[in-house]
Amino acid sequence: MPLKTARLNKQGLEHDRKFMLLKVREDGTFQNVQIIYFPECARLFQAIDGDDIVVTHRPTGIEKDGSNVPGQSHIATELRVPLKPNTAGLKTVDIHLYGAETRAYRMGAEPYDQWFSACLGYDVLLVYIGDGRRRILAHSPRQEAKTNKTSTAPITASSSSWLSSISSYITGIPQPSEGERPGDNKNEEDDDWLTFNEAAPYLVASQASLRDVSSRLPPGETADMMRFRPNIVVDGDEVTCWDEDYWGELLVSPSSCNGGGGGDEERSKQDKDDIGGRNSTCTLALTANCGRCLSINIDYETGRMAEGEAGMVLKKLMRDRRVDAGHKWSPIFGRYAHLLPSLKADAVITAAGHQDALAGAVIAVGDEVKVTKRNAERTVWRWPNT
Description:
Layout: E1 5-9, E2 12-13, E3 19-24, E4 30-32, E5 44-49, E6 52-57, E7 77-82, E8 92-97, E9 100-106, H1 109-120, E10 124-128, E11 134-135, H2 141-147, E12 152-153, E13 162-168, E14 193-194, E15 202-206, H3 207-214, E16 232-235, E17 247-253, H4 265-273, E18 282-291, E19 298-299, E20 304-305, H5 313-318, E21 332-339, H6 343-352, E22 361-364, E23 368-375
Parallel strand pairs: 15-16
Antiparallel strand pairs: 1-2, 1-22, 3-4, 3-10, 5-6, 6-7, 8-9, 9-10, 11-14, 12-23, 13-16, 13-23, 15-21, 17-18, 17-23, 18-21, 19-20
Protein backbone atom coordinates (compact mmCIF):
# COMPACT_ATOMS: atom_id res chain seq x y z
CA MET A 1 0.00 0.00 0.00
CA PRO A 2 1.59 3.31 -1.03
CA LEU A 3 0.98 5.94 1.67
CA LYS A 4 1.32 9.73 1.79
CA THR A 5 1.86 9.71 5.56
CA ALA A 6 2.64 6.90 7.99
CA ARG A 7 2.70 6.60 11.75
CA LEU A 8 5.79 4.82 13.07
CA ASN A 9 6.51 3.05 16.35
CA LYS A 10 9.20 0.71 17.60
CA GLN A 11 7.50 -2.30 16.00
CA GLY A 12 7.00 -0.80 12.54
CA LEU A 13 4.39 1.15 10.61
CA GLU A 14 1.01 1.34 12.32
CA HIS A 15 -1.10 -1.76 11.53
CA ASP A 16 1.74 -3.36 9.54
CA ARG A 17 2.56 -7.09 9.87
CA LYS A 18 -0.16 -7.89 12.39
CA PHE A 19 -1.71 -10.72 10.34
CA MET A 20 -0.20 -13.76 8.62
CA LEU A 21 -1.34 -16.78 6.62
CA LEU A 22 -0.33 -20.35 7.46
CA LYS A 23 -0.63 -23.20 4.99
CA VAL A 24 -2.03 -26.41 6.48
CA ARG A 25 0.22 -29.32 5.53
CA GLU A 26 -1.11 -32.84 5.01
CA ASP A 27 0.28 -33.93 8.39
CA GLY A 28 -1.58 -31.12 10.16
CA THR A 29 1.49 -28.91 10.74
CA PHE A 30 1.73 -25.38 9.37
CA GLN A 31 4.00 -23.54 6.95
CA ASN A 32 4.40 -19.76 6.96
CA VAL A 33 2.96 -18.34 3.75
CA GLN A 34 5.88 -16.22 2.53
CA ILE A 35 6.02 -14.88 -0.98
CA ILE A 36 9.22 -16.67 -1.97
CA TYR A 37 7.37 -19.99 -1.63
CA PHE A 38 3.88 -18.75 -2.51
CA PRO A 39 4.28 -16.10 -5.25
CA GLU A 40 0.54 -16.28 -6.03
CA CYS A 41 0.00 -14.18 -2.89
CA ALA A 42 1.21 -11.20 -4.92
CA ARG A 43 -2.36 -11.11 -6.23
CA LEU A 44 -3.77 -10.29 -2.77
CA PHE A 45 -4.21 -6.55 -2.27
CA GLN A 46 -5.04 -4.60 0.90
CA ALA A 47 -6.66 -1.27 1.70
CA ILE A 48 -7.72 0.24 5.02
CA ASP A 49 -11.35 1.35 5.25
CA GLY A 50 -12.27 2.76 8.66
CA ASP A 51 -11.64 0.04 11.24
CA ASP A 52 -11.28 -2.72 8.64
CA ILE A 53 -8.72 -4.07 6.23
CA VAL A 54 -10.30 -4.79 2.87
CA VAL A 55 -8.45 -7.65 1.17
CA THR A 56 -9.05 -8.13 -2.54
CA HIS A 57 -8.00 -11.18 -4.52
CA ARG A 58 -7.34 -10.35 -8.17
CA PRO A 59 -6.25 -13.64 -9.72
CA THR A 60 -4.67 -13.97 -13.11
CA GLY A 61 -6.16 -17.45 -13.05
CA ILE A 62 -4.39 -18.59 -16.20
CA GLU A 63 -1.49 -21.02 -16.51
CA LYS A 64 1.23 -20.54 -19.13
CA ASP A 65 -0.56 -23.04 -21.40
CA GLY A 66 -3.78 -21.03 -21.22
CA SER A 67 -5.63 -23.33 -18.81
CA ASN A 68 -7.16 -22.25 -15.50
CA VAL A 69 -5.08 -22.57 -12.34
CA PRO A 70 -6.38 -25.72 -10.57
CA GLY A 71 -8.27 -25.03 -7.35
CA GLN A 72 -8.05 -21.25 -7.54
CA SER A 73 -10.98 -18.88 -7.75
CA HIS A 74 -10.84 -16.83 -10.95
CA ILE A 75 -13.20 -14.01 -9.94
CA ALA A 76 -12.07 -10.96 -7.96
CA THR A 77 -13.56 -11.06 -4.47
CA GLU A 78 -13.21 -9.08 -1.24
CA LEU A 79 -12.93 -9.88 2.46
CA ARG A 80 -13.16 -7.45 5.37
CA VAL A 81 -10.90 -8.09 8.38
CA PRO A 82 -11.05 -5.95 11.55
CA LEU A 83 -7.85 -4.01 12.19
CA LYS A 84 -8.01 -4.82 15.90
CA PRO A 85 -9.95 -8.06 16.41
CA ASN A 86 -11.38 -9.06 19.78
CA THR A 87 -9.20 -12.04 20.71
CA ALA A 88 -11.40 -13.29 23.56
CA GLY A 89 -12.19 -16.94 22.97
CA LEU A 90 -9.97 -17.29 19.89
CA LYS A 91 -7.78 -20.38 19.62
CA THR A 92 -4.01 -19.88 19.48
CA VAL A 93 -1.24 -21.38 17.41
CA ASP A 94 2.55 -21.28 17.88
CA ILE A 95 4.44 -19.32 15.22
CA HIS A 96 8.05 -19.98 14.22
CA LEU A 97 9.34 -17.18 11.98
CA TYR A 98 12.95 -16.36 11.22
CA GLY A 99 14.12 -18.07 14.42
CA ALA A 100 11.88 -16.00 16.71
CA GLU A 101 8.75 -17.57 18.17
CA THR A 102 5.44 -16.33 19.53
CA ARG A 103 1.78 -17.28 19.77
CA ALA A 104 -0.90 -15.92 17.47
CA TYR A 105 -4.68 -16.01 17.45
CA ARG A 106 -6.61 -17.95 14.82
CA MET A 107 -9.21 -15.67 13.26
CA GLY A 108 -11.51 -18.60 12.52
CA ALA A 109 -12.70 -20.75 9.65
CA GLU A 110 -15.67 -18.65 8.61
CA PRO A 111 -15.24 -16.40 6.75
CA TYR A 112 -11.48 -15.94 7.04
CA ASP A 113 -9.81 -19.32 6.49
CA GLN A 114 -12.45 -20.38 3.98
CA TRP A 115 -12.08 -17.20 1.89
CA PHE A 116 -8.27 -17.34 1.66
CA SER A 117 -8.32 -21.09 1.00
CA ALA A 118 -10.79 -20.60 -1.87
CA CYS A 119 -8.65 -17.84 -3.37
CA LEU A 120 -5.33 -19.70 -3.16
CA GLY A 121 -6.49 -23.25 -3.83
CA TYR A 122 -5.12 -24.87 -0.66
CA ASP A 123 -6.04 -24.87 3.03
CA VAL A 124 -4.73 -21.87 4.98
CA LEU A 125 -5.34 -20.21 8.35
CA LEU A 126 -5.46 -16.45 8.97
CA VAL A 127 -3.77 -15.56 12.27
CA TYR A 128 -3.47 -12.31 14.23
CA ILE A 129 -0.53 -11.54 16.50
CA GLY A 130 -2.56 -9.61 19.08
CA ASP A 131 -0.45 -9.29 22.23
CA GLY A 132 2.17 -11.73 20.96
CA ARG A 133 5.79 -10.67 20.67
CA ARG A 134 8.80 -12.04 18.80
CA ARG A 135 12.29 -11.36 20.05
CA ILE A 136 14.72 -9.47 17.85
CA LEU A 137 17.57 -11.97 17.80
CA ALA A 138 20.28 -9.61 16.52
CA HIS A 139 21.05 -6.14 15.20
CA SER A 140 18.74 -4.07 17.38
CA PRO A 141 20.26 -0.69 18.37
CA ARG A 142 20.53 -1.90 21.96
CA GLN A 143 22.42 -5.02 20.91
CA GLU A 144 24.65 -3.03 18.58
CA ALA A 145 25.57 -0.68 21.42
CA LYS A 146 26.47 -3.62 23.66
CA THR A 147 28.66 -5.39 21.13
CA ASN A 148 30.12 -2.15 19.70
CA LYS A 149 30.66 -3.94 16.41
CA THR A 150 29.89 -1.02 14.11
CA SER A 151 32.75 1.29 13.23
CA THR A 152 31.78 4.89 12.49
CA ALA A 153 33.52 7.77 10.83
CA PRO A 154 32.95 11.52 11.00
CA ILE A 155 30.15 12.84 8.81
CA THR A 156 31.46 14.24 5.54
CA ALA A 157 30.29 17.57 4.24
CA SER A 158 28.19 15.98 1.51
CA SER A 159 26.48 13.50 3.79
CA SER A 160 25.63 16.00 6.51
CA SER A 161 23.47 18.10 4.20
CA TRP A 162 19.77 17.55 3.63
CA LEU A 163 20.49 15.04 0.92
CA SER A 164 17.18 13.50 0.05
CA SER A 165 13.52 13.05 0.78
CA ILE A 166 11.12 10.26 1.53
CA SER A 167 10.12 8.94 -1.88
CA SER A 168 7.39 6.42 -1.06
CA TYR A 169 6.37 3.61 1.25
CA ILE A 170 5.87 0.35 -0.29
CA THR A 171 5.41 -1.33 1.93
CA GLY A 172 24.70 -13.97 23.62
CA ILE A 173 20.88 -13.94 22.63
CA PRO A 174 18.34 -14.19 25.47
CA GLN A 175 16.33 -17.43 25.46
CA PRO A 176 12.92 -18.27 27.00
CA SER A 177 12.99 -19.18 30.66
CA GLU A 178 12.09 -22.72 31.66
CA GLY A 179 8.36 -23.24 31.27
CA GLU A 180 7.91 -20.01 29.33
CA ARG A 181 5.89 -20.28 26.12
CA PRO A 182 6.94 -18.35 23.01
CA GLY A 183 5.68 -14.79 23.20
CA ASP A 184 4.99 -14.85 26.95
CA ASN A 185 7.77 -12.42 27.84
CA LYS A 186 6.01 -9.08 28.38
CA ASN A 187 8.77 -7.18 30.18
CA GLU A 188 7.59 -3.58 29.81
CA GLU A 189 11.18 -2.33 29.94
CA ASP A 190 12.22 -4.44 26.95
CA ASP A 191 10.77 -3.00 23.75
CA ASP A 192 13.10 -4.94 21.42
CA TRP A 193 10.41 -7.10 19.87
CA LEU A 194 8.68 -7.67 16.56
CA THR A 195 5.27 -8.54 15.19
CA PHE A 196 5.39 -10.60 11.95
CA ASN A 197 8.35 -8.69 10.45
CA GLU A 198 11.11 -11.12 9.65
CA ALA A 199 14.20 -9.47 11.16
CA ALA A 200 13.54 -5.78 11.87
CA PRO A 201 10.65 -3.29 11.93
CA TYR A 202 11.80 -1.29 8.89
CA LEU A 203 13.58 -1.77 5.59
CA VAL A 204 15.08 1.32 3.94
CA ALA A 205 16.05 1.43 0.27
CA SER A 206 16.93 4.11 -2.27
CA GLN A 207 15.60 4.88 -5.73
CA ALA A 208 19.21 5.41 -6.86
CA SER A 209 20.05 1.77 -6.18
CA LEU A 210 16.85 0.66 -7.92
CA ARG A 211 17.91 2.64 -10.98
CA ASP A 212 21.19 0.71 -10.94
CA VAL A 213 19.20 -2.54 -10.96
CA SER A 214 17.14 -1.26 -13.91
CA SER A 215 20.35 -0.50 -15.81
CA ARG A 216 21.11 -4.23 -15.77
CA LEU A 217 17.90 -5.05 -17.64
CA PRO A 218 17.29 -4.78 -21.41
CA PRO A 219 16.43 -1.32 -22.79
CA GLY A 220 12.86 -0.34 -22.00
CA GLU A 221 12.60 -2.58 -18.92
CA THR A 222 12.70 -1.16 -15.42
CA ALA A 223 12.96 -2.86 -12.02
CA ASP A 224 9.93 -2.61 -9.75
CA MET A 225 10.63 -1.50 -6.15
CA MET A 226 7.73 -3.70 -5.02
CA ARG A 227 9.90 -6.76 -5.57
CA PHE A 228 12.28 -5.58 -2.84
CA ARG A 229 9.44 -4.75 -0.40
CA PRO A 230 10.94 -1.82 1.56
CA ASN A 231 8.61 0.29 3.66
CA ILE A 232 10.67 3.50 3.43
CA VAL A 233 12.17 4.63 0.13
CA VAL A 234 14.58 7.57 -0.10
CA ASP A 235 15.41 9.64 -3.17
CA GLY A 236 17.22 12.89 -4.00
CA ASP A 237 19.93 14.47 -6.10
CA GLU A 238 22.62 13.68 -3.53
CA VAL A 239 21.72 9.99 -3.15
CA THR A 240 24.06 7.77 -5.16
CA CYS A 241 23.51 4.09 -5.85
CA TRP A 242 24.48 1.80 -2.98
CA ASP A 243 25.43 4.74 -0.74
CA GLU A 244 22.95 3.36 1.81
CA ASP A 245 25.38 0.47 2.44
CA TYR A 246 27.21 2.86 4.80
CA TRP A 247 24.29 4.67 6.41
CA GLY A 248 24.25 4.27 10.20
CA GLU A 249 21.55 6.75 11.24
CA LEU A 250 19.03 8.88 9.37
CA LEU A 251 17.28 11.95 10.74
CA VAL A 252 13.84 12.51 9.16
CA SER A 253 12.43 16.02 9.38
CA PRO A 254 9.23 17.60 8.01
CA SER A 255 9.93 19.24 4.68
CA SER A 256 10.17 23.03 4.61
CA CYS A 257 8.31 23.00 1.29
CA ASN A 258 5.55 21.00 -0.32
CA GLY A 259 7.80 18.22 -1.62
CA GLY A 260 5.50 15.42 -2.69
CA GLY A 261 2.78 15.51 -0.08
CA GLY A 262 3.53 18.14 2.57
CA GLY A 263 2.10 21.54 3.28
CA ASP A 264 -1.61 21.42 2.45
CA GLU A 265 -4.25 22.38 5.03
CA GLU A 266 -5.76 18.91 5.30
CA ARG A 267 -2.41 17.32 6.07
CA SER A 268 -1.54 20.07 8.57
CA LYS A 269 -4.73 19.35 10.52
CA GLN A 270 -4.00 15.62 10.51
CA ASP A 271 -0.40 16.21 11.57
CA LYS A 272 -1.47 18.05 14.71
CA ASP A 273 -3.45 15.00 15.82
CA ASP A 274 -0.69 12.45 15.16
CA ILE A 275 1.54 11.05 17.91
CA GLY A 276 4.98 12.61 17.74
CA GLY A 277 3.78 15.78 16.03
CA ARG A 278 4.86 17.08 12.65
CA ASN A 279 7.05 19.75 14.18
CA SER A 280 9.37 17.06 15.55
CA THR A 281 11.98 14.86 13.92
CA CYS A 282 12.62 11.15 14.22
CA THR A 283 15.77 9.07 13.91
CA LEU A 284 16.18 5.69 12.28
CA ALA A 285 19.14 3.47 13.16
CA LEU A 286 20.20 1.33 10.20
CA THR A 287 21.88 -1.69 11.75
CA ALA A 288 22.13 -4.47 9.15
CA ASN A 289 22.05 -5.26 5.46
CA CYS A 290 19.19 -7.10 3.80
CA GLY A 291 20.39 -10.18 1.92
CA ARG A 292 18.12 -10.97 -0.99
CA CYS A 293 16.63 -14.27 -2.18
CA LEU A 294 14.67 -15.55 -5.18
CA SER A 295 11.66 -13.46 -4.15
CA ILE A 296 13.10 -10.50 -6.09
CA ASN A 297 12.52 -12.49 -9.29
CA ILE A 298 8.73 -12.59 -8.77
CA ASP A 299 6.45 -10.86 -11.28
CA TYR A 300 3.77 -9.20 -9.16
CA GLU A 301 1.49 -8.82 -12.17
CA THR A 302 1.20 -12.57 -12.65
CA GLY A 303 1.95 -13.96 -9.20
CA ARG A 304 4.68 -16.17 -10.67
CA MET A 305 8.42 -16.05 -11.24
CA ALA A 306 9.15 -13.54 -13.98
CA GLU A 307 10.25 -14.66 -17.41
CA GLY A 308 13.26 -13.51 -19.40
CA GLU A 309 15.92 -11.30 -17.85
CA ALA A 310 13.41 -9.87 -15.35
CA GLY A 311 13.45 -13.33 -13.81
CA MET A 312 17.23 -13.19 -13.42
CA VAL A 313 17.54 -10.11 -11.20
CA LEU A 314 18.98 -12.14 -8.32
CA LYS A 315 21.66 -13.64 -10.55
CA LYS A 316 22.53 -10.22 -11.98
CA LEU A 317 23.01 -8.75 -8.50
CA MET A 318 25.10 -11.68 -7.34
CA ARG A 319 27.86 -10.58 -9.70
CA ASP A 320 28.86 -7.55 -7.64
CA ARG A 321 26.44 -7.13 -4.71
CA ARG A 322 27.60 -9.97 -2.44
CA VAL A 323 29.23 -7.34 -0.23
CA ASP A 324 28.37 -8.67 3.25
CA ALA A 325 30.61 -11.47 4.57
CA GLY A 326 27.75 -12.60 6.81
CA HIS A 327 25.52 -13.01 3.73
CA LYS A 328 28.09 -14.97 1.75
CA TRP A 329 25.78 -16.05 -1.07
CA SER A 330 23.18 -13.27 -0.98
CA PRO A 331 23.35 -9.94 -2.82
CA ILE A 332 22.52 -6.89 -0.71
CA PHE A 333 19.71 -4.45 -1.43
CA GLY A 334 18.46 -2.21 1.38
CA ARG A 335 19.16 -1.81 5.08
CA TYR A 336 17.18 -3.00 8.10
CA ALA A 337 16.26 -0.12 10.41
CA HIS A 338 14.86 0.63 13.86
CA LEU A 339 13.14 3.74 15.20
CA LEU A 340 15.14 5.32 18.01
CA PRO A 341 13.28 6.66 21.08
CA SER A 342 11.98 10.21 21.05
CA LEU A 343 11.86 12.08 24.35
CA LYS A 344 8.67 13.86 23.32
CA ALA A 345 6.97 10.63 22.29
CA ASP A 346 8.18 8.78 25.39
CA ALA A 347 6.62 11.45 27.62
CA VAL A 348 3.30 10.99 25.86
CA ILE A 349 3.50 7.24 26.17
CA THR A 350 4.40 7.29 29.86
CA ALA A 351 1.38 9.44 30.61
CA ALA A 352 -0.99 7.42 28.45
CA GLY A 353 0.41 4.00 29.33
CA HIS A 354 0.38 2.63 25.78
CA GLN A 355 3.67 0.93 25.04
CA ASP A 356 2.62 0.03 21.48
CA ALA A 357 3.16 3.67 20.53
CA LEU A 358 6.57 3.96 22.20
CA ALA A 359 8.71 6.45 20.30
CA GLY A 360 5.82 7.11 17.95
CA ALA A 361 6.41 9.49 15.05
CA VAL A 362 4.81 10.47 11.77
CA ILE A 363 6.69 10.68 8.47
CA ALA A 364 5.42 11.72 5.06
CA VAL A 365 6.32 11.66 1.41
CA GLY A 366 8.52 14.69 0.82
CA ASP A 367 10.11 14.72 4.29
CA GLU A 368 13.80 15.59 4.32
CA VAL A 369 16.35 12.94 5.25
CA LYS A 370 19.78 13.63 6.69
CA VAL A 371 22.56 11.10 7.22
CA THR A 372 23.72 11.77 10.78
CA LYS A 373 26.00 8.73 11.13
CA ARG A 374 28.02 6.96 8.45
CA ASN A 375 29.81 3.68 9.00
CA ALA A 376 33.46 3.54 7.99
CA GLU A 377 32.89 -0.06 6.83
CA ARG A 378 29.88 -2.10 5.83
CA THR A 379 28.17 -3.86 8.72
CA VAL A 380 28.38 -7.67 8.84
CA TRP A 381 25.31 -9.88 9.24
CA ARG A 382 25.52 -12.15 12.30
CA TRP A 383 22.10 -13.69 12.80
CA PRO A 384 22.13 -16.72 15.15
CA ASN A 385 22.50 -20.11 13.46
CA THR A 386 23.03 -18.69 9.99
